[in-house]
Amino acid sequence: GRKTIDELVRADEGLVSRSIFVDDEIFQQELQRVFSRAWLFVGHESLVPKPDDYFVSRMGTESVILTRDRQGQIQVMLNSCAHRGMKLCRYDHGNNRTFTCPYHGWSFSTDGKLVERPGELVGVPGHATHYKGELDKKQWGLKTVAQVVNYKGAVWATWDPDAPAFLDYLGNMRLYLDAALDNRDGSSGGSEVIGGVQKWRVKCNWKFAPENFIGDLYHDISHRSVDIVGIGPGGGRGRRDPSATRSAICFPELGHGLLGRLPFYEEGPYAPQYARYPEVEAYYREVHERRERTLGSAMRVQTSVGTIFPNMSFHGRQPRTLAVFHPISPTEMEMWRMYLVDKDAPEAVKEAARHYFLRYSGPGGMTESDDMENWTGATEASMGTMSRELYFNYQMGVGHAEPVPEIPGCAVNGEYTEENARIYYRRWAQFMNGLSWDELMAGAARAQEAA
Ligand code: FES
Q1: What is the mean pLDDT of residues 294-317?
Q2: Ordered domains of the chain (ranges, CATH)
Q3: ipTM of this predicted complex?
Q4: Residues 6+ apart with CB under 8 A from 383
């Protein structure tokens, strides 16, 4: 018979079955049990700056429309006509007051002056004649998400009306996400996506990417060539200050984790890295010093990379990127990358960032090319009848996580550990076992109380 989820994911022992990366039945269950319940990252507000702007995003395998209505509110709706399911919007982004279906011409609106709820059906060709005025338009709007949140410019949504508030779902991981969303003082979403959204498909299971971003410093060997060529933010040799230490930090009850430093560490003096670009150097130095002045030490956090369960990852403070990994099939995903800069930064700063992102990240960037090679190779070599029966090994550092009393729910490990991956797959198994939200959030609640 088929193995149970608990047989497939033996997180405490550091064992995860390869079948969860290649099996079609498990993939279908993931869509239902993870993607239709969890909070998912759907975009950044700067992609829809003006009323009626829209950006076509995805939640799981489904297309959704992220739009800013005429009242300025962000809405997220299923991109599928209520009549016969046609994909309503076939552009990637644009500006539209109503969405009209190409098949039979039904139209839907988000204008709060016109409709009671976003996505309501407002236009039906032949409503009076063909339908004899009998079709109840109120019943046939677009399906909208159950909850949507704009958190410091990042837009999150869930299909599950019973899902906890986004900030509870995020927990104290928020400290680290904040550093990715706002480079300056954490008070506002003063960032914008530059250069559009890069999207590309990779022939690997979607979980490889968030697992990597959650704290796999061990794979740095893959990026040797990057260090040799030298493609860091300032264009110098190496990618980062080798003296900067990082830890794998995780939130075991929530499934989130990162590589970074604890917030009560001092950020330290400004580390110059833009010698070739004096204007850029001056800007980041000023931003750094402003942060030192205006933020309490608890807010001066350093993140390099992190993952929010299930499929969103980010690079923290400078350079900052947001990434989301959409499932396509058990052995294919679509990666999306958004590059964040301070909205009011000088052009030279944005230009330097754009060049850095092009050579470092994205489908043509060096680090991403390295990772894709590994993930597609691992997926391909785990698809066979022999190989899919085996387990991946996540045993590095079992039993060495230490709680962080100052941050409820937080655990810290050494620099090199697979603890973060273990807590990620433990969380995945909880969702796959169909736990209720009370059960899913009980551990985090206990950690808060104990603090
Ligand atoms: Fe959209 Fe018929 S499918 S109007």
Answers
A1: 81
A2: 5-35+171-450 (3.90.380.10), 40-148 (2.102.10.10)
A3: 1.00
A4: 22, 331
What distance separates the 2 farthest-apart alpha carbons in the chain?
75
CB of 108 within 6 A of ligand 1: the answer is: no
Q: Evaluate: CB of 203 within 6 angstroms of ligand 1.
A: no
Residue 325 Cα, ligand 1 centroid: separation in angstroms? Answer: 30
The residue to which tokens 């497939």 are assigned = 8
Q: How far apart are CA 138 and CA 439, in angstroms?
A: 36
- For ligand 1, the distance from its centroid to the CA atom of residue 88, given in whole angstroms, is 8
- The rounded percent of the chain whose pLDDT value lies above 70 is 93
Distance of CA 119 from the midpoint of ligand 1 (Å): 14
Per-residue pLDDT at 263: 75
Which tokens sit at 81? 């006509």
Give the whole-angstrom CA distance, residue 19 versus residue 425: 13
Ligand 1 in contact with 135 (CB < 6 A)? no
CA of 296 to the centre of ligand 1 (A): 54
Give this prediction's pTM.
0.95
Task: State both tokens at 19.
Answer: 């079948």
| Exposure string for 151-163, b = 16+ CB within 10 A, e = fewer | bbbbbbbbbeeeb
Helix, strand, coil distribution of the chain in percent, nearest 5: 30, 25, 45
